Each structure stands twice: as structure tokens, then as C-alpha cells.
Amino acid sequence: MLSIEENQLLTKTGPGTPMGELFRRFWLPAIIPNELTPDGTPVRLRIMSEDLVAFRDTDGRVGIIDAFCPHKLAPLFFGRNEECGLRCVYHGWKYDVNGNCVEMANEPPENRFQDKVKITAYPTEEWGGLIWIYMGPENLKPELPQFEWARVPETHRHLARWLQETNYAQGMEGEIDTSHISFLHGGLTPYMRDNPDKRPTRQGATRNLALVDGAPKLTLSRTDYGFVYGARRDTGEGDYYWRVTQWLLPMYSMIAGAQWPRGGRAWVPIDDENTSVFGYNYNPEAPLTEEQIANIESGQAFPPRVKRGTHELKDGYVIDHNLGVANKGNDYLIDRDVQRNETYTGIWGINEQDRGLQEGMGRSVNRSREHLGTADQATITARRLLIRMAQELQEGTEPAIANQGDLYRVRSMDIVSPEGDFQRFMDVFTDEAKAKA
Amino acid sequence: MLTKEDNELLTQTGPGTPMGDLFRRFWMPVLLAEELPAPDCDPVRIRILSEDMVAFRDTDGNVGVIDNYCPHRRASLFFGRNEECGLRCVYHGWKFDINGDCIDMPSEPAESNFKDKVKIKAYPAKQYGSCIWVYMGPAELQPELPEFEWARVPDANRVITRFIQHSNFMQATEGEIDSSHVSFLHSVFDLSIDYHRDMRTGDQKNDRNSVLSYKFGAPQLTVKETDYGLTYGSRRGPEEGNYYWRVTQWMLPMFSLIPGPAWPRGGRGWVPVDDEHIITYQYSYNAERPLTDAERARAIDSMELEHVKYTLKDGKIIDTYRSVRAPENDYLIDREMQRTQNYTGIPFGRHQDFAMTDSMGSISDRTKEHLGTSDTAIIAARRIILKATRDLQEGVEPYAASHPEVFHVRALDIVSSEGDFVKLLEADGQKTLADM
How far are the Cα atoms of A132, B293, B331 from residue A226, in angstroms, in the given order? Predict the structure, then answer.
């Protein structure tokens, strides 16, 4: 539970908000590189309540600039992307990827007005399968987080971006909520209970152990990058099924999996009621096979089934985004007969299940009305940490982790072990917890 | 005309508002019973008096109306599993029964007693008169169900629809006690055309409601305050020495009975979804015999309803019926029809009303209106409900809520030589009492 004030502190990331300031100290994923082609169609973005347009210029460089031309605030989305710049089609003003006005065709050249006008342009980096953006103070530009998935060869990873119609924190909290997988994604229905032979089998043998013990015991360990926690389930055979998950500042997850590829997500606020979710899957040991890529792109887990489209936000601004095929408007294609007999939810995909529940809370849930139990310890800690860091930044303490990119080189774990104590477990498996790339 | 303050008092029914408190003393319909057709059927999302709820029928056939959001992390219970006498949230498996008790919490250790400390909001629900009713007030004040005749006749004698309207409850309710608009909004130039009426079938030329209402546009209204709210007589004529009287009831907090010369007759209940939407329950019944298939079909088909997931202004979704004639398509107005056949260019009465009451804006600004003598009943209804609201704030409970027998009345449509309403009631008052 949070007070109304704490809830606002946690969820609001627009310019000038404390959490917005904290997020603006980090490089954040902005867009997938293949969404932009040289001189191709610009893409409308909103990031942390700022309206931006992304384009790739003739030389292949990426610019992310204000969505509106500073002249008359016309939308640059309709602009001409040509000859190393994006030109507003209203009066022909043209900008390069750095935000310089490189031509002002409707003013006499002797005025030099063009040298006085700049458009907001944020630094970008194309790296690790993403285009990253930094929206903070120029003199504090941090290091890129050295995630293993970003450091492996391009052939070893898969990245995707899709829309979630909630505040970022609502989705992010689902990542560090291990107990829900025993229900939402794999609950035992009365039908399965009464017909053991009809229980679904899932890939990765240990995964089914989540079904055995729905009340995992969580142990949390604070780290420089955020925290890591172990969720311990009793296998019923004298040992433990451990899922070790990281939560990394300001909003990344790393999900445990029994085998490669494994994945996780980044939750980038569009505004306070919508999120661009970036999902990664990777294998540090080998290129992803065609079959694995087909499996990822089937939409059964992360990413969900999507189609490219435009989405009008509440105030009328339109963004270009991948949109869930199963969505709020169609109740996530819930099939109540399937729910009765075959699966816990009757909703097909894993993310579709998550999104159904998280979007169903409303766009920004009122945390003053919830009831958290022992299973929610990780959620509680993430909130406290973010709120504290946002408050500390207001008082002048910069987040150290923003400049310690190498500390992001960690791995999640999914292991059955007789060891019952989390600290001793982590001592035993120190090497497994380190990124190799 | 009302002051801005009185207009807010009149129109706001969310938790903690004075009018909201008054509504919460009464049972209100929330669903048609047929929308929860069988034990363990799909849950249905509703919003009532600005509270988001989910309704379900459990394995034993009992109906629960509980908070739409699981108290754990506020996920929607609409996606829940309705099984083994409870609705289970699919997020972490918490399960609630129709009384709001948490009966399973499998995500917490077995030795934890957290389950016993968590309750979900649950309101008493009953099935009655083809509807599911809910009581949202203080438990110790829970009254008996209101004894409406339409609810007490056998199911076969009744037809009921429900549908969303895009305005505050009060401006729609006021249309029910506004006799004079019948002469304009609902009028038809050519009585051989079978428009307008959504309840009765048959030849309009022989329907005195239509003939006389269209002829006399300035009825004289007399209001009588009653235990249940008010009744008023609307007098048209005289013609050949007789008056055409329409006697209508408006019943607290938001029900109506509409007169008609023959069965079936009906009325409506206007249940606030929030301050800017209502679900209207439109009932039509015959106290004497089952409805025919044609009568039933007329009442349903004329509404042109679709079952929809309706997105409210804050993005939340409810499951309801909605007419295909809606604000965004101008109620499919046919201007040629308006020129040549009827007053509005919209065929049926209810849709004609929609166009008017929706077009006032979701909450009508009553500081800017101009009321005349034909608005006497509207003025009286506002005064009565505002007084009941203020009284309740001072501790005086509404009499009608705890006296269900006061609703035992009928509307009346009569031609009489009597010109005085009080004397008319003395002579024909028996006809305004319900049989059932």
C-alpha cells in the first residue's frame, strides 16, 4: 500500500516530476532500429510525456527531435525526410539529427534567423539491438547499461516493442511478482485437478514446479543495480526450486528460465497512463535458431501477438506503435470454455494474460486501496527504492548506478537445489549469476 | 432553474455524496436476470453510483455483486474463474464468495491468517421481477424490495430491457414527468404510420393517447405529493365535455409509471452508472394476462439494442446493452421523415427522448434553463428529492425506502368529465392502485 502522494511520486514521469528527473538520468530504450530506414517514414513517439519524432537520415544516423516544428508547432511527422534532415512541409524549415535548423527556406538568408532557432533533439545511441535516448542534463550523460543481451552478437538476440495501456510501474511490478505465475500463467483448475492426465505440460521441466507450490518464499538482496531475489518453492522431493530474478534500475527485469533463450523487459513510460514495453530474448551461447525466432514471434509469451498501427492517446496525440492483437477492446480474446476446461484464464498468450490483468486495474492503479502480503515483498521494495532515489535526487544525490554500466552484467537463474538458504545458494551459484558476454 | 450548488446536489451520486447516500437507501436493479443465465456463468462488469462492481452467479445459483477489483493488487475480477462457489482472481488465485469473504488465498503460506483479514466489498443482491437488484446502503437499514406491480406479476406478463444512456440520471428522469413534450417530440403527422410507440401494438388512429396528446399541446398539470414521491394529473381538453387525463407516478429515487389507455403499460427505472451515464430499465407489463409474442418483440425490437463492451470516460469497461441510435450518429435521424412523417425524423419514442436528454450535455446546467407552468411536476420532483437528500443528511431516513407497499400503484389514462384532479382521484383513485 502507498499513500496517494507516494503513488503519484512513483507513477508520474513527466518533465519536472521527481520520478521523471530520476528516469532522465539514465539511457532509456526509445525504439527498435528496424522501425527506421534511411530517409524513411518518421515515427511518432511520446516518452515520459514528451512528444517526439524519430527519423533516420540519409547517412543512417538516427535523430529523435521534438514532434512539433518550432515555427508554428506543425507536426514534423508529415515532414520530408531527405538529404540529411527532416523538413517541415508547412514552410520548409529543415532540421538535422542534432536539432540544428539547416534550412529556413521561407526567410531571407541575410536574416540568419535559422541560426537562432533550434529544435529539441536528444542524444541517441544505436547499440545492443536498440536505439537509446538520453533526456537528462547534457553534463551528466551516463554510461549505457551493459546488459548481456545487448553485448551478445546481433544473431543471438531478439527485441520487440509493444504498447501497454497502463502506467509503467503497474507492468513492471508484474515482473517481480513470482507468485502470480502459479496462478495466472499456470494455475491448476478444478478440471485439471480432477483429470491429472489432462494437465498441460510446458517447455522446461522445472517450470511445472511453479504449480507444485503456489506460495513461494521470497528472499531479497539489495544490490547496486537494484535487487535480486530468490523465490523458493518446495518440490516435495526434499529439494527446492529456486527462481532468481533481477530488478534493475530504473525499470528493467530479468526473468528466470530453465533454458536459453531467456528474456526480460524494459518498461519505458510513454506518459503516466501508457508504456512502451521492450522485450528481449537472447542466447549468449549460440545464434537463435529459426525455430526459436518463430516461437518468440508467435506471440505466445513475450512479445505478444501484435500488429503495427497508430494509437491515439487521450489528448489526441497519435503515436506509431505495435499494438496487441488481443487487447482491452476485445477482452483479450478470452474464451470462457477454454477457461472452464483447459487453462486458468482462457486467454491465450502469457503477456496477453498479464496485460489483461494489469490493464484491467485501470490506467494507473490506486495503490492506497490494495492489500499486499508476504508474496509481494519484491514489489514493495522496488517501489520504496525508486521513491527514495527520486527524493534523494531532489536533494542533490545523483543515482550512482547510472554511471556504472558494467554492474548490469548479471544473469537470472532457474535451478533446483537442496540448498534452502538464499545467501548460501547465491554463494554456490556465483558464477551462474554473472554475464559472460 | 436551480443554483449551481443545488444542481450538483441533485446530480452527484458517487460514494459520500448526499444524493448518493439517498440512493443507497433503496434497492436498485443492476442487471437483467438473464444476463447471469446459469451457475458458474461468465461474470459481468457493472458500474453503479460510480462504483465498479462485478456480478456473478455461483455454483449454487446465488448471485454475488462484489468489487470489480481484487483487494490484493486491484486486478479486475472480470477475468476471474467462476467456479466451486466463488469467483477467483486469475492473477494470484485469491477467491471470494458472494458475501465478499476471501475463501482461498493460495499465494500466501498456509499458516498465514491474512485470508481472514481481507474482505472484498460485496453488496446484498436479489433476483426479483426479471432483474438482479442490489442494496448498497448500511446493512442495518436494509429494507424489503419495493412492491412494484410490474415486478410482482408472473414473468410471462412482463418484458424488460436495459440500455445505457449518455447523460446524468435526473435529466432523463425529468422527461418522464413532462407531459407536454408528448404533444411535440413524440407526435406523428400521419397516424396511419406505425411509429413512435415502443409498448403497444395496434392501430394508432384508435389510440386516444396519440390522438388527444397531439391535439392538445398545453396540458394543465396538478401535482400531488405522496409517500413514494409524487403523482400528477395532466389534463388535456375539454373536448365534447370531457377531459383527457394522464396520471403519472414518479417514485423515489428514480422510477416512473407511464399511463396508457390499454395494457401493456410500463415505466422506467433510471439507475446512475456514474454522474454522466445511466442504465435505464424499461419495463412493460400486463397485470391481467401473459404478453403475446408480438408485444414482447415490439418492446425489445423497437429499442434496436446491441450487447456491447462500453468504454466509460476513464477507460473502464462495462458490459451492457446500447441502442444503435447513439450520439455519434445523430440517432440515425432521417430528415426526409422529419419533413413529411413525424416531428423528429427519429422513428421511436425512446430514441427521440435520447436525442433530447443526451443533447443537454452529460450533466445539464440547470442554472441556465427557463421553466414554465407545464414543468410543474419536474420542479416538484426536484424539490422532493432535494428535501429527502437534505433530510437524510440530518438523520431523517426516507420513508419510502422502508415502506415497500407504498409502491403499490398504477398509472392511469382516462377520459372524464371531471376537471379537478383531487376530485378525479376521489372518484377514480381505485384505478391507480395495483392489483398485485
Answer: 20, 68, 56
Q: How many domains does chain A have?
A: 2
- Mean pLDDT across chain B, nearest whole number? 93
Indicate whether B161 and B70 sit together in one domain: no
**Does B317 fall in a domain?**
yes
Q: What is the CATH number of the domain that holds A83?
A: 2.102.10.10
Most B CBs within 10 A among A180, A232, A314, hence the mutation to make, goes to A180
Domain match, B348 and B254 both: yes
Cα A302 to its chain centre, rounded Å, is 11
Whether B288 and B418 share a structural domain = yes
Q: Residue A285: which CATH number?
A: 3.90.380.10
HSE of B60, CA atoms in CB hemisphere, 13 A:
6
What's at A227, amino acid-wise? Answer: F
Verify that A131 and A255 share a domain, yes or no.
Answer: no
DSSP state of B188: B
Q: Which of B221, B219, B220 is nearest to B377 (CA)?
A: B221
Contact: A353, B74; criterion CB under 8 Å = no
Q: Show the domain range for A33.
A: 27-140
Whether residue B184 sits in one domain with residue B121: no
Residues B283 and B425 in one domain: yes
Q: Please state the rounded mean pLDDT for residues B340-356.
A: 90
Nearest to A190 among B78, B83, B92 (CB): B83
Asked whether residue B168 falls in the same domain as residue B130, the answer is no
Same domain, B302 and B202: yes
> Could you tell me if A130 and A159 lie in one domain?
no
The whole-angstrom distance between A121's CA and the closest CA on chain B is: 33
Pick among B67, B70, B81, B96 to test the A interface (most A CBs inside 10 A): B81
The values of phi and psi at residue A346, to 5°, are 75, 5
A396: nearest Cα among A7, A13, A28, A18 = A18
Residue with cell 460514494: B15
Residues of A in contact with B93 (CB under 8 A): 182-183, 187, 214
Q: Which residues in chain B touch residue A214, judged by CB atoms under 8 angstroms apart?
A: 93, 106-107
Most B CBs within 10 Å: which of A185, A351, A371, as the mutation test of the B interface? A371
Of A184, A339, A361, the CB nearest to B76: A361
DSSP A25: T
Both B103 and B219 in one domain: the answer is no
* A401 lies in some domain: yes
Indicate whether this complex's ipTM tops 0.90: no
C-alpha cell belonging to residue A180: 502470480
C-alpha cell at B323: 441502442
How far, CA to CA in Å, does B342 sit from each of B179, B195, B294?
18, 8, 24
Across the interface, do B118 and A371 touch by the CB < 8 Å criterion?
yes
* Model confidence band, residue B211 (pLDDT cutoffs 50, 70, 90): confident
Distance CA A325, CA A341 (A): 24
Give B317's contacts in chain A (Cβ within 8 Å): 328
Alpha-carbon distance B282 to B300, whole Å? Answer: 10
Quote the cell numbers at residue B59.
455454483
- pLDDT digit string (tens) for A57-116? 999 999 999 999 999 999 999 999 999 999 999 999 999 999 999 999 888 888 788 888
Chain B CB contacts of A166 under 8 Å are: none
Q: Which residue segment(s) compose the domain that B355 sits in?
A: 149-432
Q: What are the backbone dihedrals phi and psi of residue A359, each rounded to the nearest 5 degrees, phi first? A: -70, -30
pLDDT tens per residue, range A369-426: 999 998 899 999 999 999 999 999 999 999 999 999 999 999 999 999 999 999 999 9
| Cross-chain residue pair B69–A187, CB shorter than 8 Å | no
A18 assigned to some structural domain:
no
- CATH value at residue B49: 2.102.10.10
Which residues, 6 or more positions from B366, have their beta carbon under 8 angstroms from its beta carbon? B1, B2, B6, B7, B10
Last residue of a domain, one of B80, B109, B141: B141
